[in-house]
Write a structure and sequence with these properties.
Elements (H helix, E strand, L loop, with lengths): L6 E9 H13 L3 E8 L2 E6 L11 E5 L2 E5 L17 H4 L3 E10 L2 E5 L8 E6 L1 H15 L6 H9 L1 E5 L25 E6 L6 E6 L2 H7 L5 E4 H16 L9 H6 L6 H6 L7 H5 L6 E7 L5 E8 L9 E2 L2 E2 L4 H20 L9 H4 L7 H11 L4
Parallel strand pairs: 2-8, 8-9, 9-10
Antiparallel strand pairs: 1-11, 1-12, 2-3, 4-5, 6-7, 6-14, 10-11, 13-14, 15-16
The structure holds iron/sulfur cluster (2 copies).
Length: about 375
């Protein structure tokens, strides 16, 4: 029978130097490592060269329309929740040129777009965001047309996931079945252990290339005690979610398309689109054509757009969603209800970003609960 320190051969322990070794190994393999850093008072996703770049000791406080970083919390480098940026900013950039054409005689010739695929290693991807990437895989390669740029970047990307050991105030991944423990879709998964004054990372490989990188690091086999400590931290995170989505929300919204709550929320909603910009699964875009002053070259650019703009629903002579209520309803019912019919899953992973970064603190879980309660739900 295994004692408390019996090795778990599927999982190993690395320390802070081992984490630096992981970053070095990924850089040696030609990846650009993108991870959490602090900028402008928030945790953002930027290139990192080492552990010193990570937000050691920083935690976040999140609530509706509120985000604050609090420092001085010890050695932990992953003890914060999702920040205002999602990984889509790298896999599905805010602006992307689709093609360029040059004048040739009396016509134009479309130039082949040279596709340089960056090799990203994403360090610190939370379970909700791993699920969001899988949702985008379905959107961009699910048989309805393929986005070659997204796919090339996605296939090249190395994912180092991190199990959450502290729930954020606006998190509700548990009720969306998307966290806080990663359940696939990673090359390596870390759980940060900081109890009893130690600082270590329990690591498991989720792919062959992940195992190959792991084999190059200074490590030791994890014991049962390490594994159960990690499980306890993740279990505590699951029990302390800041928010909860009501059950059966897809059907609930589907039968309440004319509910008075849509007008109520529209009294507060600024239709600013912040919620769609920070959401890891929102993918609406528009295209803009531009020419240079000579008229010799023309380019088509794709840019992130939002269902909260009037122009987004402009169809031959007019916008079909003129009122804020219609735009909020479109966003929320798409995320939580019609996404199932379109892509086979919810479009929400419970990351809470839309709640935190809504300037007036509109809370998608609260809006769903209001409709739920109006039906006399428990
Ligand atoms: S709708 Fe809100 S909570 Fe859900 S995935 Fe998007 S930003 Fe996160
Ligand atoms: S719900 Fe909030 S973030 Fe979204 S458009 Fe309305 S005011 Fe902006």
């Amino acid at each position: 029978m295994a004692g408390s320190d019996a090795p778990d051969r599927d999982k190993v322990l690395i320390d802070r130097d081992g984490l630096q070794g992981l970053i070095d190994a990924l850089i040696d393999d030609g990846y650009q490592v993108i991870g959490p850093r602090i900028a402008d008072g928030a945790v953002v996703l930027e290139p990192v060269a080492g552990v010193d770049d990570l937000p050691a000791g920083w935690r976040d406080e999140q609530d509706g329309g509120r985000y604050r970083l609090v420092g001085g919390g010890g050695d932990a480098v992953f003890e914060f929740g999702p920040g205002p940026q999602a990984w889509k900013r790298y896999l599905y950039p805010p602006t992307e040129r689709l093609w360029r054409a040059r004048r040739r005689g009396k016509g134009f010739a479309i130039e082949d777009e040279a596709m340089e695929t960056p090799r990203y290693a994403f360090l610190g991807v939370r379970a909700c965001d791993v699920h969001a990437m899988a949702i985008h895989d379905e959107v961009f390669d699910g048989g309805r047309g393929t986005d070659p740029g997204y796919l090339a970047r996605r296939r090249a990307a190395f994912v180092v996931a991190v199990n959450c050991t502290r729930a954020g105030g606006t998190c509700f991944c548990v009720s969306m079945g998307a966290g806080p423990k990663v359940d696939g879709g990673f090359d390596l998964a870390l759980t940060e252990l900081t109890e009893r004054d130690r600082h270590a990372f329990l690591v498991e490989a989720g792919s062959e290339r992940g195992a190959q990188v792991l084999a190059r690091l200074d490590r030791r086999d994890a014991g049962d005690g390490d594994v159960s400590a990690a499980e306890a931290l993740v279990a505590r995170t699951a029990e302390t979610m800041g928010r909860e989505m009501v059950a059966d929300v897809a059907a609930l919204l589907g039968r309440n398309l004319e509910h008075p709550r849509w007008n109520k929320v529209a009294e507060r909603c600024l239709t600013c689109g912040n919620c769609t910009m920070v959401c890891p699964t929102c993918f609406c875009s528009t295209v803009e054509d531009v020419t240079d002053l000579t008229g010799d070259t023309a380019e088509r650019w794709r840019k992130w757009d939002s269902c909260f703009t009037v122009e987004f629903s402009y169809i031959h002579g007019g916008s079909i969603r003129r009122e804020g209520a219609a735009r909020y309803r479109q966003w929320m019912t798409h995320k939580l209800s019609t996404w199932h019919e379109q892509f086979g899953s919810s479009g929400c992973v419970g990351c809470g970003r839309c709640i935190t970064w809504c300037p007036v603190g509109i809370d998608i879980t609260e809006e769903a609960r209001a409709i739920h309660d109006s039906e006399g739900g428990e």
